[in-house]
């Protein structure tokens, strides 16, 4: 029998566990951002500003759909982590296999619906006519690759639930290298344009998903199930949907606000779209740390909840917020000093208006990164404790804030209004998450000095 690679996060110093678990997730996230940035860098440098705008015009729609898939898969893995923490291995395998069945159904339905209505949605968000065809070329192919996206995210989430955050990092590293090589091949040699960048992306995702399958089969005997454990069951599916759908919807609700914002940016013209596209690529790269700590917290909280250790959950949340705050200050300094130079990876130095817009966006955004760090920790902790529906309201807060900015302030403030939108949304989410987290801990008796194991 293969040696188990599971990691128990119910014992040991919380901040060390969180850091050790976060680092591979962070590296994987950075490589994921790297191959997302590679699309923009190669497209912007080889195909020009208009092509870059075509890729950027669809970014909010990708966030909406792919964000739902990613959030759903993360939610499906929470019962796996909780079962592992409680030592209920048969139940863990049942949750894992039922999540495979549900994910397959969602993959088919989402792919068909998004592919059919792709152009209509781009028109609905006021994509400029000059970049509409390019945006459709890119987005349609990305939507066709949704099954690969779900495959990787589900299996990577299950690996992390079992305590293995290193393998998904290694697989994303391989995917990033493949994506960059294929980008250059498809765009500069085959002349496939922005569609070539999309084909490179989904191909690399398929490879990373295949590597996850190989890893689970070879290294995790805990997931080797008998025929009874592989059988679809209503009870386990309902539990998975109860956690997965709220997490997916929370991300999608947040994305609706982003679509409103993208629509407002599209209305400002090609220069603003290009500026926003470059700024987002840089922002997402620097936000990888916040997301990685949040992902680690979902597993950490899930396992400790299964073990009945709310005292460790409370201590872990404090440690994670401290990590986020230290990084937020460091990131703000780097972006204030070098944001313009990083933007030159995407556009030529002669595009001074675009570079000025990007630097302004990064200066304003980075001043509020501490709020974003708190948001990721508390939202992930709430979800890890099984309160995914409560976390939806933080997404609603973000959606309302972005929608209000897009409708009332951006038309008056122009690109400056775009620069302030995310920060207002983060503040709105924190105003909900902080009291919600404290109430959930209080409700579970987590303010007692030590909570006995369940």
From TrEMBL:
It comes from the Bacteria. CDD domains: MATE_yoeA_like. GO terms for cellular component: plasma membrane. GO terms for molecular function: antiporter activity; xenobiotic transmembrane transporter activity. Keywords: Cell membrane, Membrane, Transmembrane, Transmembrane helix, Transport. PANTHER family: MULTIDRUG RESISTANCE PROTEIN YPNP-RELATED. This is MATE family efflux transporter. It comes from Diplocloster agilis. The lineage of its organism: Bacteria, Bacillati, Bacillota, Clostridia, Lachnospirales.
């Amino acid at each position: 029998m293969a040696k188990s690679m599971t990691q128990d996060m119910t014992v040991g110093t919380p901040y060390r566990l969180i850091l050790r678990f976060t680092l591979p997730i962070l590296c994987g996230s950075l490589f994921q951002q790297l191959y997302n940035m590679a699309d923009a860098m190669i497209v912007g440098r080889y195909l020009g500003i208009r092509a870059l705008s075509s890729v950027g015009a669809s970014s909010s729609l990708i966030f909406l759909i792919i964000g739902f898939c990613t959030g759903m898969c993360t939610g499906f893995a929470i019962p796996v982590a909780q079962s592992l923490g409680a030592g209920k291995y048969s139940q863990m395998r049942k949750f894992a296999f039922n999540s495979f069945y549900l994910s397959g159904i969602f993959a088919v339905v989402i792919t068909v619906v998004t592919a059919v209505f792709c152009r209509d949605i781009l028109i609905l968000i006021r994509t400029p006519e000059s970049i509409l065809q390019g945006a459709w070329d890119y987005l349609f192919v990305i939507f066709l690759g949704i099954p690969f996206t779900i495959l990787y995210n589900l299996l990577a989430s299950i690996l992390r639930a079992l305590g293995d955050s290193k393998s998904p990092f290694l697989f994303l590293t391989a995917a990033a290298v493949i994506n960059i090589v294929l980008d250059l091949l498809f765009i500069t040699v085959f002349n496939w344009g922005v569609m070539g960048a999309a084909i490179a992306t989904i191909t690399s995702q398929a490879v990373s998903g295949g590597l996850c399958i190989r890893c689970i089969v070879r290294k995790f005997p805990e997931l080797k199930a008998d025929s009874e454990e592989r059988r679809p069951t209503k009870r386990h599916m309902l539990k998975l949907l109860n956690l997965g759908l709220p997490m997916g919807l929370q991300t999608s609700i947040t994305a609706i606000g982003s679509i409103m914002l993208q629509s407002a940016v599209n209305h400002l013209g090609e220069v603003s779209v290009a500026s926003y596209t470059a700024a987002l690529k840089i922002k997402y790269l620097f936000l990888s740390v916040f997301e990685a700590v949040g992902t680690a917290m979902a597993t950490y909280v899930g396992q400790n909840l299964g073990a009945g250790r709310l005292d460790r959950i409370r201590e872990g949340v404090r440690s994670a917020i401290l990590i986020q705050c230290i990084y937020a200050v460091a990131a703000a300094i780097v972006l204030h000093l070098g944001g313009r130079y990083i933007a030159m990876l995407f556009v030529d130095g002669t595009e001074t208006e675009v570079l000025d817009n990007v630097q302004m966006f990064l200066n304003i955004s980075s001043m509020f990164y501490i709020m974003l760090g708190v948001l990721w920790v508390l939202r992930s902790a709430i979800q890890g404790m099984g309160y995914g529906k409560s976390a939806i309201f933080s997404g609603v807060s973000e959606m309302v804030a972005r929608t209000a900015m897009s409708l009332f302030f951006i038309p008056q403030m122009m690109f400056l209004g775009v620069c302030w939108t995310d920060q207002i949304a983060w503040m709105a989410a924190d105003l909900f998450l902080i009291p919600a987290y404290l109430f959930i801990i209080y409700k579970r008796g987590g303010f007692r000095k030590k909570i006995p194991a369940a």
